[in-house]
UniProtKB/TrEMBL annotation:
Descriptive protein name: Protein sleepless
Keyword field: Membrane, Signal, Transmembrane, Transmembrane helix
Organism per entry: Adineta steineri
Transmembrane segments: 117-134
Signal peptide: 1-23
Amino acid sequence: MRRLATGITILFLAILSFFSTGAIRCYSCRSVNTPDCDSKLELTKVNITIFIVAINESQRCIKHKLSDIYVRGYEDATACKNGDNGCSSTKVADLDITDCCCNTDLCNGVSSIQQQYLLLISVVSMVIVFKNIFTV
């Protein structure tokens, strides 16, 4: 009986975790101040400030790259030249400039392919946990 109560509690908490809180989080750092805020963004090595940004029509997570300088944070959606989830690249003089915008939780960190792997690992882990809890 105790095992069933634990399983129901975990299931309830898992269901609650899927509901949106009405806000997205964006990584915020500058590679000039924080060297690990580069293209790899190794979160285990760096103290990244995470801002909570309200989901509305006016703000998006951003990642700017100016040659070898990276800036992550948030801006108004009007600054997103290539839509809510896209990047635009230009070249000014000898500098390559890339601006990316996105509107999902912590989307300005790792690439979308890495996010998909993390999601897959999370789902598989939950299935294994639930299988072990509900197996008699």
